[in-house]
Structure formats: structure tokens, C-alpha cells
From TrEMBL:
Belongs to the sodium:solute symporter (SSF) (TC 2.A.21) family. It is a multi-pass membrane protein. GO terms for biological process: proline transport. The chain crosses the membrane at residues 5-23, 69-91, 121-140, 160-182, 189-212, 232-251, 272-295, 315-336, 372-389, 395-420, 432-451, 471-490. The keyword Transport applies. This is Proline permease. InterPro entries: Na/Glc_symporter_sf (IPR038377), Na/Pro_symporter (IPR011851), Na/solute_symporter (IPR001734), Sodium:Solute_Symporter (IPR050277).
């Protein structure tokens, strides 16, 4: 074991421990444990949002995809960037306003209140979706941590998974939401530094971009083609397959919970979009080039890796002094922990608050509820640990499966409930039930995480058409259609429609020929202005 690497990592671990101790002073009630008492600054909430979003997928899964697919993998970055902007445009401000109105602490709280469901079915379905897919998501993060420790410290992947579980579970149990948010802020900065430093060092050693592309072309010219060498309709399907992450952003509980915690919903517009947009652009560029240039280095014989998803930690150990490599390894572990901690917290709320307290009606003191949540965190972590050790071990695939289940289960109903006054509880129940069952069957029994030509019967025909497109992308729109149809066949309560109109109907501006009335920019105009000024459009 490299003790210099270990020293750098231990320094990082001390920082996390201090934050957990500090945050514990602010974690005395259920509201503080799950949403930080709605006192989280927009900068912290935004960085925490993005850190919890990208996970080990950013530091391991996506670079591994760029390593294997080449230039075509950049479509995934485009999907993630515009998915981020869609979240701040479509979900963030309205969800914070509604959550404050209903005093909602969790996403199931909001959905039950918004759809006025007195049957508890929406809360039960929400908890089921969260437990099934969030546990799988946490398992993917544990696997990512295991690979990072294996590459950085020379231990086995299983040992690395166990270390990840112990560290992560400890500080989630200690500090709750405040610990999660502020460790996420630190982790976001570690991730940013890692994905700036490592690609630059790789570019220098490989001899520049021309030298890298020449080396890659000598082995596989398709890796330099933006559509993987495909043309026509096949090229379109290729791009959709990678960019399909965009729809998933609308339904991730561990991300949208951040919006519910912000002190001022208005700041989710300009500051939120600006901070998250800049951070996301930088890290996605860095992650892509780490994998792309890492492959060129392997072709040139400058470095060796036994797993494409280990390319970033391998580059860190290869380039940097051992103590600094320890900090970079910490940055990679940061990505893993910043997502898994949020997911563990959301999963614990699904059992402790949504099932035990709200459905079963067990009345306990706020401190007791927090303690129960901490026990649930330990249990969910244990189940995820088993999945991580026995699962496929491919982070990109594991994350896509879990991401898709949450996207289909929550994305359509959440988006419609925020923007359409006509959506009904019956539609929510049917849509969420369909999303849960269909994702489990399609992803676990028929396709795996993406359409493929080898699927049985009729599904094989679809697989030939949509080969490589994640199942959740198509299923998202099917679920959206189902919710709309059921809503049109049923009727929402009049007071729910009236509340929606009161909260979100715009006040018209009277105009005269003599003077024009100044107004603030809309959310759409803010997004367009940011995209234009940053060169995205």
C-alpha cells in the first residue's frame, strides 16, 4: 500500500468527520434531519445538488464510457447538462413554493398533498419506488468506491466496497441532511479540481490532442466519429441513447430534495442556473477527456488499466506525487459519497417517515424519529452492500438502471403536478404503479438497462430499432401519456385547481402607448441567456 496516498486520503477523511460533528449540532428534529430546516443557502444547495447528482458515474462510469466509445460518448454530457438546466427551469422553483405551502419534507409528502390523496397509495408507491431503485443506486456507488480504493490502495474491490460502506454510513447517521449538504459542498470542489488537473496532465503526457487522436485512429477510427461511425437513423438513435439521461433529471428524489431545502425559491433561478451550469460544464468536459485521453495513453503504452472504469484513479496515481494522488483519490471517493449519502437519506425517509409514521400512524417524538431513520440507513446500506458485491460491477449500467427506475416512477407525475392544474390523484396512482412494475420487468427480466436485438419476441423487434437506447427513455414518455389520459378521464378537486392557479397564474402587465413597463426576465429567458452567453447555443 502507498502510504503517501493513504496520508492524503486520511486528511480528507478528517475534514468529513469534522463536518459530521459540526452538523450534528443542527440535527435535533425530523425537519432538520431531512431538509436542513429549510435554511440551506442557495450556493450550498446548488453545489450539493450537483455533487449528489453525478456520483461515481461522473468519476468512473462516464470516463469509462468515453474510454470505450470515444467521441460519441460526449452526447451523454450534452444530455446531463441540459437535464440540469431543465431541473432548474421546470422543477426547482415551483417545487420549493409548493413544498413550503404544504410544509412537505419529502417528495412523497409533496405528491400526497398536491394530488390530495387520502388513500395513502401514492405514499406507499413512492416508498416502494425509492426503496427498490435507490437501494440499487446506492449499490452502484459502493461498487464505484470499491474500484477506486482497489486502484488507489492496491486492495481488492470487495475490501474497497466495505471501506466505502463504513465511512459513508457513519457520517450520514451522525449528521443527517446538514452533514450531507456541507460534505457535498467540499466534495463538489474536490471533484472539480480532480477533473481539471487530471485531463490537463494526460493531455501534456500524450503529446497534445493531435497526437492523441492519431493514436486512437490507428486502432479504431469509429472512436473519433461523433455518432460512433453510424449514419442516418442509426446515428440519431446512437445520439439519443447517450443523451437520454436528460429525462431522468425530472424524477430523482435525492436531487429535487435540495430544491425543497433552499431558503429562497427565487434564488433557484439566476444564481442556481448559473452556479450549476458552470460547474456541470467543467466537470463533464473533464470527465470526458479523462477517459478519451486515457485511452490514447493506453494505446501508446504509457499506462495500463484492467478496467476502463478505473482510468481516472489510474491516471491520478500515475501522474501525481503520492500525497497529492491521495487527495485526487479522495475527490473520486467524494463523487461516490456525495450521491450515496443523499440516497441513503432519501431511502431512510421512505421507511421511517412515509411508511412508519405517515402510513402506519405511529406517533413518536421528533428525536425518536431521527433515531429510527438512522437505523434504517444502516439496514439499507447493508442490503446495498450485498447488491454491490454480487451485482454486475459495471457502474454505467448499474446507475442507468437505478436512474431509469426513479425517472419513470417520479419524473412524469412530478413534472405534470407542477405545471398542469388538471392532473389527478387517480392518474398519479396509475402512472406511478405502471412506472414501478414496468421498470422492474423491462430492465430486470427483458432488456437489461437498454434495448437490445437479442430480447425475446416482439421486444427483439423493438431492440433492433432502438438498439442501445435506455429502456427508461421510451418508458418515461409512455408513463407521461398514461398519466395525461387518466387525468382527462377523471376530475381533480376544485380547491386543488384553485390553489394551483393562485400560486402560479402570472399577473398581466398593462401597457400603454406612452410608456413601456419594465419587467424581470422569465425562467426560460434566464436559461436562454445563460446558454447563449456561455456558448452552449
Amino acid at each position: 500500500m502507498n502510504f503517501g496516498v493513504l496520508f492524503g486520503f486520511l486528511v480528507y477523511l478528517v475534514i468529513l468527520a469534522y463536518i459530521g460533528w459540526w452538523a450534528n449540532r443542527y440535527t435535533r428534529t425530523e425537519d432538520q434531519y431531512f431538509v436542513g430546516g429549510r435554511k440551506v443557502h442557495v450556493l450550498a444547495a446548488t453545489l450539493s445538488d450537483k455533487a449528489s447528482d453525478f456520483s461515481g458515474w461522473l468519476m468512473l462510469g462516464y470516463p469509462g464510457s468515453a474510454f470505450k466509445a470515444g467521441l460519441g460518448a460526449f452526447w451523454a454530457a450534452i444530455g446531463c447538462l441540459y437535464g440540469t438546466l431543465a431541473d432548474y427551469l421546470l422543477i426547482g422553483p415551483r417545487l420549493r413554493i409548493y413544498a413550503g405551502k404544504f410544509r412537505a419534507i419529502t417528495l412523497p409528502d409533496y405528491l400526497e398533498a398536491r394530488l390530495k390523496d387520502n388513500t395513502k397509495l401514492i405514499r406507499i408507491l413512492s416508498a416502494a419506488i425509492i426503496l427498490v431503485f435507490m437501494t440499487a443506486y446506492v449499490a452502484a456507488q459502493f461498487t464505484a468506491g470499491g474500484k477506486t480504493f482497489a486502484e488507489g490502495f492496491g486492495v481488492s474491490v470487495t475490501t474497497g466496497i466495505l471501506i466505502t460502506v463504513i465511512i459513508l454510513t457513519a457520517y450520514v447517521i451522525t449528521g443527517g441532511f446538514f452533514a450531507v449538504v456541507w460534505t457535498d459542498v467540499v466534495q463538489a470542489m474536490f471533484m472539480l479540481m480532480t477533473l481539471i488537473i487530471v485531463p490537463i496532465l494526460a493531455l501534456v503526457e500524450v503529446g497534445g490532442l493531435d497526437s492523441a487522436t492519431a493514436a486512437i485512429a490507428s486502432v479504431d477510427l469509429a472512436k473519433l466519429h461523433p455518432f460512433g461511425g453510424k449514419t442516418g437513423f442509426a446515428a440519431l438513435i446512437f445520439a439519443i441513447g447517450y443523451a437520454s439521461w436528460i429525462v431522468g433529471y425530472l424524477g430523482q428524489p435525492h436531487i429535487v430534495t435540495r430544491y425543497m431545502s433552499v431558503e429562497d425559491p427565487r434564488k433557484l433561478r439566476r444564481p442556481g442556473i448559473f452556479i450549476s451550469g458552470i460547474w456541470t460544464t467543467i466537470v463533464l468536459w473533464g470527465a470526458f477527456f479523462a477517459g478519451f485521453l486515457g485511452y490514447a495513453m493506453v494505446v501508446k503504452g504509457l499506462i495500463k488499466v484492467d478496467d476502463p472504469e478505473k482510468i481516472v484513479p489510474a491516471l491520478a496515481v500515475h501522474f501525481l506525487p503520492s500525497w497529492l494522488a491521495g487527495f485526487v483519490i479522495a475527490g473520486i471517493i467524494s463523487a461516490v459519497m456525495s450521491t450515496a449519502d443523499s440516497q441513503l437519506l432519501v431511502a431512510s425517509s421512505a421507511i421511517a417517515r412515509d411508511i412508519y409514521h405517515k402510513v402506519l400512524g405511529q406517533e413518536l417524538g421528533k428525536k425518536q424519529m431521527v433515531n429510527i431513520s438512522r437505523v434504517v440507513v444502516s439496514i439499507v446500506a447493508l442490503v446495498a452492500l450485498i447488491f454491490a458485491i454480487k451485482g454486475p460491477g459495471v457502474i454505467y449500467q448499474m446507475v442507468a438502471t437505478a436512474w431509469g427506475g426513479l425517472a419513470v416512477g417520479f419524473g412524469p407525475i412530478l413534472t405534470l403536478s407542477l405545471w398542469w392544474k388538471r392532473v389527478t390523484k387517480e392518474a398519479g396512482i396509475v402512472g406511478m404503479a405502471y412506472g414501478l412494475v414496468s421498470e422492474v420487468l423491462l430492465e430486470a427480466k427483458i432488456y437489461g438497462w437498454a434495448f437490445n436485438p437479442d430480447a425475446p419476441g416482439f421486444f427483439g423487434t423493438l431492440g433492433r430499432i432502438f438498439d442501445g437506447v435506455p429502456v427508461f427513455f421510451i418508458n418515461f414518455f409512455i408513463t407521461l401519456f398514461i398519466i395525461i389520459i387518466v387525468s382527462l378521464l377523471t376530475k381533480p378537486p376544485e380547491d386543488v385547481v384553485k390553489l394551483h392557479e393562485q400560486l402560479f397564474t402570472k399577473v398581466p402587465i398593462e401597457r400603454t402607448e406612452k410608456r413601456a413597463i419594465a419587467r424581470t426576465m422569465s425562467q426560460a429567458e434566464n436559461v436562454f441567456a445563460f446558454a447563449t452567453s456561455s456558448g452552449l447555443l
